[in-house]
Specification:
479 residues, alpha/beta, 7-stranded parallel sheet, 20 strands, 40% helix, globular
């Protein structure tokens, strides 16, 4: 049957009268595509929805210029710096671990120093047969696991590097840091959408569980996994069948030999081990000092402001701060003491901390749980070594083969070289605090994801890209 135009108009008018007007009295064209997750600003409860939104955001980012990618990164930097106090204190309240001034400082520092698009490397080869250009291309949607120790800072640093590489990311945060993670991600996305027009470049699972992590790892649209956390989640990522970048655990040892500047060593150990109450995976965890300067080193620590515990006080602290866990009842840091202030540890030991005390320390033997366990609290055990070779051997043993971080205080280049070769760690710091290994008081760039197990080292935008080669045959060789 042939319908004329007037009949069609009448039918349309009747349908519209029955369904009522659209908002503002206008009808949305049926052909208009609504982006997955539109208006969510990156916060999702469903993994599939989050990945779909991140995939759409990645595809949109690919169509944008490098200048716009830089603008996205600058927005993240700006919020991290301008809102560091509010967001840092929010993280402190939620997690209850660490020190508020360091929560603030980490966000501000990452906003300033996290590497962006300037790190991307382009290489060219030219010869008789033309030109080959090698550039860094994005993977696509990245799945990221972040720890409670640095919930929003890790997301911030990873987001800058991942987006600089042209990717989007879906984060499964630690449950104890999920609220600040969602708040920070929401703020990042809202500003990016307002200024650039892309939402959901950074997505977060608002109610993270082990099941949501497993779903994320197995999702067909996840191209790469980045884990910053404990060994269990790292192993799960490596079993996923996908490319995984794993930042694993550490138990960083310090060696002090007879040539060291002991006062400088003491200041550096306190600065590194007390930072955020020893939550950093690179923090000084145990110190091996050659016997000939051991007593002088302990005196230097006292002069620098650390509180020394005696053997009885150490035993009292250990009974509370070290717990037996698992079927095999192995030693582990007690949750009630992880990331707590030095004054809390001192009082638990029966000591009286002075005002401004940042670190407690004391002498133990090499088998003490505070030596063998990555304790993440501001108590540092000091162990006597016969000589520097013995100290290096102890450091190697109690680093547990993580190849994460090691520190030495020495003026002897031969000793520095020997320890560097023996421990073979991703970060190796000489005569400075652990933080110098991440460009804070030392050279280099900053990242909170240090991929030792999978070998990428301190992650950067290049870490989250793949190599693509474009070849022009017998042309564009103009020399």
């Amino acid at each position: 049957m042939q319908l004329d135009e007037s009949i069609i108009r009448n039918v349309v008018a009747q349908v519209l009268s029955e369904v009522g007007p659209m908002p503002n009295g206008t009808a949305t064209p049926l052909s208009k595509n609504v982006a997955p997750g539109a208006g969510r600003n990156g916060v999702f409860t469903d993994v599939n929805e989050a990945v779909a939104a991140a995939k759409h955001a990645h595809e949109e980012l690919r169509r944008r210029s490098m200048d716009e990618r830089k603008q996205v990164i600058e927005i993240i930097r700006r919020i991290s710096i301008d809102q560091c106090e509010e967001l840092g204190l929010m993280e402190m309240r939620e997690t209850g671990i660490g020190r508020p001034e360091h929560k603030i400082e980490k966000l501000k520092t990452l906003g300033t120093l996290a590497p962006g698009t300037e790190m991307l490397e382009t290489k060219a080869f030219s010869g008789d047969h033309g030109l080959a250009l090698i550039e860094r291309a994005p993977f696509g949607v990245i799945a990221a696991i972040t720890p409670v120790t640095h919930s929003l800072p890790t997301i911030t640093g990873n987001a800058v590097s991942m987006i600089a590489g042209g990717n989007s990311v879906v984060v499964n945060p630690h449950p104890s840091g999920k609220k600040v993670a969602a708040e920070g991600v929401s703020r990042f996305n809202a500003a990016i959408e307002a200024e650039i027009g892309i939402d959901n470049l950074i997505c977060v699972i608002a109610e993270p569980t082990l099941e949501t992590a497993d779903t994320l790892f197995a999702h067909r649209d996840i191209a790469l996994i980045c884990v910053t956390g404990g060994p269990a989640v790292g192993r799960a990522a490596l079993r996923s069948g996908k490319r995984a970048i794993v930042a694993g655990p550490g138990n960083p040892p310090v060696v002090v030999d007879e040539t060291a500047d002991l006062d400088n060593a003491a200041r550096c150990i306190i600065q590194g081990a007390a930072y955020d109450n020893n939550l950093l995976c690179i923090s000084e965890k145990e110190v091996f000092v050659v016997d000939s300067v051991f007593d002088d080193m302990m005196a230097a620590m006292r002069r620098a402001g650390a509180l020394q515990l005696d053997a009885t006080q150490i035993q009292t602290l250990t009974s509370q701060a070290i717990a037996k866990v698992g079927d095999d009842q192995h030693d582990a840091a007690a949750k009630d003491f992880i990331g707590k202030d030095a004054s809390v540890l001192a009082r638990a030991a029966g000591a009286h901390p002075h005002e401004g005390c940042e670190l407690v320390f004391g002498e133990t033997d090499e088998h003490h749980p505070f030596v063998t366990v990555e304790q993440m609290m501001p108590f540092v055990p000091f162990v006597r070594a016969r000589n520097v070779d013995h100290a290096i051997a102890l450091a190697k043993h109690y680093e547990h083969g993580f190849r994460h971080t090691a520190i030495i205080h020495s003026r002897n280049v031969s000793n520095m070289t020997k320890m560097g070769r023996e421990l073979d760690t991703t970060l190796y710091i000489k005569n400075g605090p652990c933080t110098a290994g991440l460009g804070l008081g030392g050279e280099g760039y900053l990242s909170f994801s240090i991929a030792g197990p999978t070998g990428e080292g301190v992650t950067s935008p290049n870490t989250f890209t793949r190599e693509r080669r474009c070849t022009m045959v017998d042309e564009l060789r103009v020399i």
